[in-house]
Structure formats: C-alpha cells, structure tokens
Design a protein that fits this description.
alpha/beta, hydrolase activity, signal, disordered N terminus, two-stranded antiparallel ribbon, Rossmann fold, 333 residues, single chain, 9-stranded mixed sheet, Carboxylesterase_BioH
C-alpha cells in the first residue's frame, strides 16, 4: 500500500482537528543515561520516557528520536509547549520513548580532538548505533522504531539502510535530500548562532505575518530557555550565542548539497513515513518526493504534508496534527 497525502487532502480529512492529547494522562517516568560510543572518550546522552506502569517492552512500541543539525534532541522532541512535549505524547500512548544526542550536542560529550569539523553523519551513525545497541540490550529486543528530524533523517536513514534487521519502522520528518546548493567545508570545529537567527532559518518559507501565529512568543521563550539550559555559557553574550559542531556543514558541502547521496534509500526495508510542513522551504517538497521515489523496497511508504507548518513543525501549532499522523503510523508497525 502506498499513499501520498498533500495539504489539500489533509485539510479535508482533518477539519475537526481534535486535540492530540485526548487520552487520560498516564504517569510517566524519565531517566537519563550516558553510554560509550565507538570513539574513545565519547559518551552519548540518552533520555528515556515511559509510562510508570509499563512492564512489557515490544519492538513496535519502542521509539528512538534523533535531532537535527544544530539543536540537541531535548530542546525540540522534549520541549514542553502547549499540552506538553512530543516525547511525553508518545509515551502517554503506552510507548517506551528514547531520545539521543550526537557527540558535541546537548548532554553528549565531544571528542578530545576538536581541531577540525566533527560529528559528521558517519560519526553520528556510530553514536546512533551505540544508542540502539544499548536500548535493544536493556529491553531484550531485536529492533525498534526510529524518528529522525532534518539532518537526523540522514542519520536514521543511513542506519536503516545499513542495519535493516534492527528497524521496525522509520519516520523521516522534514528530510533534506539532494540539491546543487553547494557549500564550503569549514575549518573550525564549531559554528555559532543565535536563537533568532536559527528560528528565521528554520521557518524559511513562512508567509509574512504568520511566524508568531504558528509559534507564539510564549512558546519561543520556553524554547530559548531550553537552549540555555543545555548551553548556559551562551549567556556570556548578548544576545546569547550558542554553538554546535560543524561536521554536518562539511557533509553538506561534500554530499547532499553537491547532489551526492550519503546513503541508498533503496536498502531501507522498513515501513517508512516521510512527513513535512506545507511552508517548509528549507527542505522543499521536491526533495521529499525524490526521496519517496527511491524507497522502492519499503513495504509501506507514505508522504504526508502538514498544512500551515514549517521545518520547525514539532513545536508549532501544527504539532497536534503531526503527532496524530506519526502516531497512526507508529501504531500500525
């Protein structure tokens, strides 16, 4: 079965837009872990959220989320705006939910040598592999479901193509694919950015006057506070200046912005969902469609577009619809 749902169809079938948090709240527990990656000295941060009464674990109800190119997972996937975080929402459906930070992001430690770009996609896949191995061993499972956002889709896609035996389902949210944008390989290990600059980039394509409507100022404040919690040193500047590894920039110049694939989607054999925001011009629809066409060995593949949403849909008002569509997909695997 294959389906392609674009915004016009979604608007017609989702007119009611019932709140995503319709179930009775379940008491959740949270635990943080550090596990060793393959690089000596690199410790990878993992967070787990699950219902307190969850005792039996299952591959189809175990989910791991991987972040994008500048922010760690906890400032997006576990950001409590609106009714709560996406991690809490999935856990409230009875899932064992995990998030991971690649080396140098959030709670994960960078390598000792920071004289050149690091946290490349290849290294990120090594970190994801360490996270998956830890979860599968702890839960006594052989596979789980993966959610990747933005650059995280290149990480999870690479893993799913290389180790299909461990992937029960794959969600690719706002996936970049091939372009001829070009770029220069950086020399420094870190890049710096402000919250406002990052938000402007993430909301590339939003119509004039709609940015604060879909991402209210109160939510933006919560997001900025979450960023500062992961990088308190950023407050030494006004406005705060955050930093993230440049490995993804180097990969962009060498691979996807030079029309060179970093993995083969044809090797993915898990059910796959591509989902994106209608106003996302950072990773345009044409890239999602090109990727969709290459998923020839996925037993089920979907492409869904969320109306009135950008690349940052997880923390925008369109998140209720995003949560439901992704949950429907996860529940079927």
């Amino acid at each position: 079965m294959k389906r392609l749902l674009l915004s016009s169809l979604l608007l017609s079938i989702s007119a009611a837009w019932l709140p995503a948090w319709s179930k009775e709240p379940r008491q959740l527990v949270a635990q943080d872990f550090h596990v060793a990656s393959t690089t000596p000295g690199v410790q990878i941060f993992l967070r787990n959220k699950r219902p307190k009464d969850l005792e039996n674990f299952d591959a189809s109800r175990t989910v791991l989320y991987v972040h994008g190119s500048t922010q760690p997972s906890e400032t997006v996937f576990d950001l409590a705006v609106g009714h709560g975080s996406w991690a809490d929402y999935i856990a409230s459906q009875g899932y064992d939910v995990w998030l991971v930070d690649v080396r140098g992001y959030g709670g994960s430690r960078p390598p000792a040598d920071q004289s050149k770009p690091f946290a490349t996609t290849k290294e990120a896949v090594e970190d994801l592999t360490a996270a998956v191995d830890h979860i599968l061993a702890q839960r006594k499972l052989s596979k789980l479901q993966l959610i990747g956002w933005s650059w995280g889709t290149l990480i999870t896609g690479s893993y799913a193509a290389a180790k299909p035996q461990h992937v029960a389902g794959l969600v690719l949210l706002a996936p970049p694919w091939l372009s001829s944008a070009g770029g220069k390989i950086p020399e420094a290990a870190w890049q710096e950015w402000t919250a406002d600059a990052a938000l402007k980039r993430l909301q590339t394509g939003v119509p004039e006057g709609q940015a604060e409507t879909i991402f209210p100022p109160a939510w933006k404040t919560i997001w900025e506070q979450a960023l500062l919690a992961t990088q308190p040193d950023a407050k030494a500047h006004n406005p705060p200046r955050f930093r993230s590894p440049t490995g993804v920039v180097a990969d962009g110049a060498e691979y996807w912005n030079a029309n060179k694939a970093i993995y083969d989607p044809g090797k993915i054999s898990a059910p796959t969902l591509i989902i994106r925001g209608e106003w996302d011009e950072l990773t345009p629809l044409s890239q999602s469609q090109a990727l969709f066409a290459l998923l020839r060995n996925a037993p089920v593949r979907h492409l869904i577009e969320i109306p009135r949403a950008t690349h940052f849909v997880e923390v925008e008002t369109g998140r209720d619809l995003l949560f439901r569509e992704v949950q429907n997909f996860l529940d079927r695997n």
